[in-house]
Design a protein that fits this description.
Layout lengths: L13 H20 L9 E6 L4 E6 L1
Antiparallel strand pairs: 1-2
InterPro entries: PI_transfer (IPR001666), PI_transfer_N (IPR055261), START-like_dom_sf (IPR023393)
Pfam families: IP_trans
GO molecular function: phosphatidylcholine binding; phosphatidylcholine transporter activity; phosphatidylinositol binding; phosphatidylinositol transfer activity
């Protein structure tokens, strides 16, 4: 079996990426909500367990 690994360079830091991700989530939620009711971000925090890590956002 042949395993190939691809790497994509990123031109921003991890902290900048997380801010951009939160902005994108907020903008998409606002666009999908319709009717002008808006979206409120209640929780936005990093998480890490034994299998994965990421960003938890509760809207």
């Amino acid at each position: 079996m042949l395993i190939k690994e691809y790497r994509i360079t990123n031109n921003c830091s991890n902290a900048e990426y997380q801010v951009a991700q939160l902005y994108n989530v907020a903008e998409m939620s606002k666009a999908e909500s319709g009717g002008g009711e808006g979206v409120e971000i209640l929780t936005n925090e990093p998480y890490e367990d034994e299998y994965r890590k990421g960003q938890y956002t509760h809207k």
